[in-house]
Design brief:
The structure is a single chain. The chain has one helix at residues 98-102; strands at 2-6, 9-15, 19-23, 32-37, 41-50, 55-63, 66-74, 80-84, 92-95, 107-109, 112-118, 127-136. It has 137 residues and is mainly beta. It has a single domain, classed as Sandwich (Jelly Rolls). The strands form 2 sheets. Strands 1, 2, 3, 5, 8, 9, 10 and 12 form an 8-stranded antiparallel sheet that branches. It has a 4-stranded antiparallel sheet with strand order 4-11-6-7, with no helix packed on it.
């Protein structure tokens, strides 16, 4: 559990079962939702993977109504960790190192939606994503 101070005292967040997507035969330019919650939420990390080389993967986070987007030319079988760097405005960053992906964690929000898609069509690829998060208890 994480504890966050607030004007109401301390708030406790409980770790949830990871939200997971394994979309076989992902269709080009189709958004797939990995997580969509209106619960008070804490995001620890967001990971994605593409199972075909030379695909461009785009990911979108909607945090309390604000939209953040990132793009990555994906290498086959490589795990990428997405994160919001406060200095990059509405652009999300990615890294293959989980430490970089967690450098700007956690992210607190009232509502959070995380989506992923491929914008190229290099083959019959699967998109995979795993989100580790908690909710206010």
């Amino acid at each position: 559990m994480d504890i966050k101070p607030s004007s109401k005292g301390f708030q406790t967040y409980q770790l949830q079962v990871d939200s997971y997507l394994n979309q076989a035969g992902a269709v080009q330019n189709t958004w797939y939702t990995v997580l969509d919650t209106t619960l008070d939420v804490i995001l620890y990390f967001a990971m994605f993977l593409c199972t075909v080389a030379n695909e461009t993967v785009e990911f979108r986070w909607t945090v309390d109504g604000n939209v953040y987007v990132g793009t990555r030319d994906a290498v086959f079988g490589t795990f990428y960790y997405a994160y919001k760097n406060p200095g990059n405005g509405t652009t999300l960053n990615t890294d293959t190192d989980i430490i970089m992906g967690m450098r700007f964690s956690p992210l607190y929000a009232q509502s959070l939606k995380i989506e992923i898609r491929k914008t190229t069509n290099a083959g019959a690829s699967a998109l995979q994503s795993r989100i580790t998060y908690g909710k206010l208890v």
